[in-house]
């Protein structure tokens, strides 16, 4: 009976893990895209003025000020990023994508299995947590403008992954006791 | 014998492998498209100097076109079972589930088509995965571009709302451990 309850509990974790996994995959992929597109030496970095044509502004429903600030937004990223930040983020988000895919595969194994792969799940979530912490530490060492962008979402992810890790460890202990 | 009954029951509940794969391909693509589109629209407007939007927009369109093909394939594979479920469903929860799926397919189709139409009337070219040129519907037309952009925007917001309902329902079944979501987690 207890084993059945534990199995049911592990099963409901699967859709929750997959949901967070898909969101994290989107987040890391977007970071990868962001770092690919915004590089040092690009037009915003070279000081070109924003090209805000009236027809484009109307099409995008933007004010002239907003259009000019879009260039400033890129400048903020470029000027707050230390030299090491872009290559570091490119590697970290690639690792994040790989770790997330791995965690998604293990999450699929949690649903209504006789022996859910709890140890594998612990490893995969620990990997996600390491990536989060590495990202957090990196953001901590940038300027205040980047810290404001990165730290809060990263703290949320650390909390989410910590909850997931603790849940899987607890179910793992229960599972071992039952068997 | 109970084992045989169980396997027969499981088989009748299972979905074709392709449908399961497409479901998760769609799920991951949709989340990425939402996140990346919110970010890419904050990039400087395109000009001869500012080309920041080029890659994200091409990628957005490429994923969108691929997603459209996946939606059509998936809908074609599931249309019969969905119609059967719609006619035989009892209880509001079951009916809601059927309509949620039908609406999801419809909104996904509208999102993809309106995105293509908007891009088509914007005058920008689309090269599918940087290999095949996708023909435009007609010459540049600002009014139609704005119209289809609006349709794209609002259908995507509606899709997001419906997705939240879909996710909520999946977690509801997951917590109940009633086996309803198992078929989407198995490749057999």
- Beta percentage of chain A is under 5%
The description of the largest β-sheet of chain A is: none
Question: Radius of gyration of chain B, Cα only, in angstroms?
Answer: 20 Å
CATH class of chain B: Mainly Alpha
DSSP strand count of chain B = 2
Shape of chain B, please? elongated
Distance between the termini of chain A: 13 Å
Secondary-structure element string of chain A: HHHHHH
Spatial order of the strands forming the largest sheet of chain B = 1-2
CATH-defined architecture of chain B? Up-down Bundle
The name of the CATH topology of chain B is Fumarate Reductase Cytochrome B subunit
Keywords:
A: mainly alpha, 6 helices, B: 188 residues, Fumarate Reductase Cytochrome B subunit, two-stranded antiparallel sheet, 5 helices, 2 strands, disordered N terminus, transmembrane (chain A), transmembrane helix (chain A), membrane (chain A)
Describe, in plain words, how this protein is organized in 3D.
The complex is a heterodimer of chains A (179) and B (188). With 179 residues, chain A is an all-alpha fold. Chain A folds into two domains: 2-39 and 82-178; 41-80, no CATH class. Helices cover 79% and strands 0% of the residues of chain A. In chain A, helix 1 packs antiparallel against helix 4, helix 1 (2-37) packs antiparallel against helix 6 (144-178) and helix 5 (118-140) packs antiparallel against helix 6. Chain A is elongated, with a radius of gyration of 21 Å. The two termini of chain A are 13 Å apart. With 188 residues, chain B is mostly helical. Chain B has one domain (2-185): Up-down Bundle (Fumarate Reductase Cytochrome B subunit), CATH 1.20.950. Chain B is 73% helix and 3% strand. A two-stranded antiparallel sheet of chain B has the order 1-2. In chain B, strand 1 and strand 2 (132-134) form a beta hairpin. In chain B, helix 2 (17-40) crosses helix 3 (54-88), helix 3 (54-88) runs antiparallel to helix 4 (92-122) and helix 4 runs antiparallel to helix 5 (142-176). Chain B is elongated. Residues 1-12 of chain B have low confidence and may be disordered. Chain A binds chain B through residues 8, 11-12, 14-16, 18-19, 22-23, 25-27, 29-30, 33-34, 36-38, 42-44, 48, 50-53, 55-57, 59-60, 62, 67, 70-71, 73-74, 108, 111-112, and chain B through 27-28, 31-32, 34-36, 39, 41-45, 47-52, 55-56, 59, 142, 145-146, 149, 167, 170-171, 173-175, 177, 179, 181-182, 185-186.
């Amino acid at each position: 009976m207890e084993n059945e309850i534990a199995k049911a509990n592990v099963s409901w974790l699967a859709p929750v893990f997959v949901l967070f996994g898909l969101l994290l995959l989107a987040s890391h992929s977007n970071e990868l895209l962001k770092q690919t597109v915004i590089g040092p030496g690009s037009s915003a970095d070279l000081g070109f003025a924003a090209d805000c044509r009236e027809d484009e502004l109307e099409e995008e429903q933007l004010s002239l000020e907003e259009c000019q600030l879009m260039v400033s937004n890129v400048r903020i990223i470029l000027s707050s990023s230390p030299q090491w930040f872009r290559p570091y983020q490119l590697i970290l988000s690639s690792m994040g994508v790989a770790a997330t895919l791995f965690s998604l595969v293990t999450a699929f194994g949690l649903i209504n299995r006789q022996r859910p792969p709890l140890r594998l799940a612990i490893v995969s979530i620990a990997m996600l947590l390491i990536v989060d912490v590495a990202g957090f530490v990196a953001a901590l060492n940038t300027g205040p403008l980047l810290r404001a962008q990165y730290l809060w979402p990263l703290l949320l992810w650390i909390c989410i992954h910590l909850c997931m890790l603790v849940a899987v460890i607890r179910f793992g202990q229960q599972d071992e006791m039952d068997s | 014998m109970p084992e045989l009954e169980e396997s027969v029951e499981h088989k009748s509940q299972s979905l074709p492998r392709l449908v399961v794969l497409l479901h998760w391909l769609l799920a991951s693509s949709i989340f990425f498209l939402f996140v990346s589109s919110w970010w890419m629209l904050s990039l400087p407007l395109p000009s001869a100097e500012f080309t920041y939007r080029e890659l994200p927009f091409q990628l957005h369109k490429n994923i969108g076109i691929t997603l459209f093909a996946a939606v059509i394939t998936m809908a074609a594979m599931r249309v019969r079972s969905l119609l059967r479920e719609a006619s035989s469903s009892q209880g509001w929860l079951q009916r809601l589930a059927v309509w949620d799926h039908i609406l999801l397919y419809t909104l996904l189709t509208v999102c993809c088509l309106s995105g293509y139409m908007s891009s088509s009337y914007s005058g920008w070219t689309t090269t599918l995965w940087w290999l095949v040129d996708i023909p435009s519907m007609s010459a540049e037309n600002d009014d139609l571009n704005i119209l289809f952009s609006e349709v794209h925007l609002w259908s995507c917001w509606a899709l997001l709302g419906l997705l939240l309902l879909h996710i909520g329902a999946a977690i509801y079944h997951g917590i109940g451990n009633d086996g309803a979501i198992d078929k989407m987690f198995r490749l057999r």
